[in-house]
Description:
573 residues, 7-stranded mixed β-sheet, 18 strands
Amino acid sequence: MKSVLDYLEETALQFPEKEAVYDGRRGYSFRELLGISRKAGSILTRVCRQRSPVPVFMEKRAETIAVFLGAVYAGCFYVYLNPELPLKRIKERLEFLDSDVVIAEGILAERLLQAGFGGRVLRFEELLEKEADMEALGFYRMQMRPEDYLYGMFTSGSTGIPKLVTVSGGAAVEFAEEFIRTFSFLPQDVIGNQAPFDFDVSVKDLLVSVFCGARLVLIPGVMFATPPELLDYLCENQVTVLIWAASALCVVSAARGLEYRIPGEVRKVFFSGEVMPCHHLRLWREALPEAEFVNLYGPTEIPSAGVLAEPEGSLDVIVLGDSEGHSAISPVVLWKEHGISSFVCSQSGQRAVEAYYMLKKALSVQKPKVVILETDLFYHSGEWQREWNLAIERTARYYFPIVQYHNRWKRLTYRDWKGGPFEGRRDLNRGFLPSGDIRPYKGGPYMVKTEEREALKGTVTFWTDRLVELCRKEGIRLLFVGIPAPKNWDYRRHNGVSDYAARRKVPFLDMNLLERELNMDWERDSRDEGDHLNTYGAEKVSRYLGDYLKENYGLTSQTGREMVKCGLFRLSG
């Protein structure tokens, strides 16, 4: 498999003098970007451990891109730390990364000291003091593997403590190749980067530029406070592609910026991060009638596509819920040890409305005997207006699937109606996300008995009620399951779910009360200090759950034998 660095070098060879990145002050050609990245990587090989994180504490500048790539040349992975974060958040991230070195601009070094960093602050200028050591770079290049991390990003911390999410180089390459192929990016494209470097959308901008030679124009965040200045900047740089958060597009249209000036060179507009309001989408489409608009928001489609690719009627169990579910329930273990065929349709932060429509979609091809609803989902709920906006969007998407295609509706093909680019793509882990990482939970007992309870919000019970009725209508037995998660769970939540389960007459298996039966070892079974289980913890949960399902629901391996006939026997190997 080609790596990100392979693509960078090929692009620099093909377009050496073409400007690769521009930030409003200065730009670098692909040849210059390659040279700076190699110089930076050479220095980093001497001061950073292989496959360790390299924190980058710099403004959104062209040079920052070179440092990212330099970290990869050094056999490490980059983690961007936004200088605009509060000192407390910067300190938390630095302590988590536990790195001896931080790359920073000189003017920001003082802020690192204020955050309590006691390691070495390596200024960007120091990375350019010596010529690239091609021998050292070649040594680390030979040891690179597709599964090595390319970058890490911290989550927002909306569920408590921000968590580091890492992405491998191999996964990034596979995604970028498919993304570029699907949407036909060209070397002539100019990408207007809106997203901060600590937001994953920015990676799409960077990879498209490196992979196909498109020019990357970094847009200073301050410009979004003055839409006329922003639109002038887009027009002056002849930007052709916008991969923006929906809210950023709305800033422009809400301020009537499109009445001031239209960026007429734009031919593709991608939006994500949240639901794109129809009114603002209409304004953009009227301003750019020839442009293609693409909705990248809606992670529900990815796990649902996986379950739809399974042989019809082959599943005994479908699992719904948030990331606790796909971290803790292994269909491979359920199959190997119990002959139970299953698929985990969980997703990070899944809401009750998303679980409901996920199940409706899955039932178009599956007839499971049991549906498991992971209960941490019950406590994912924002303010009511946003939740109902999400509900409206999910309902419209289910009953009127054409809305997800926006202005592509005239060009729809048989492939679109049969499931789009994901159709037929099997997930060998059946929705489970394995992790060998070990970060112990050290907080002590967390299920302290109390009569207090944390009730479920109305937007949650509204959609869960419908999910309960759907299961009863289809003759499916529903089971609520609480996954061991000291960071997210306590006895108050146990009581809240118990009350709701009793009202709806749904069995509730709370594994947070079964530490002894599960033989949980919090020194070994957690990947992030008690927030999610790793593979070791997941094996314990899955074995217990398999026994529970066979004893209480009479599941046999009959469906499993059908899976063997369908060519899925490799799961047992």
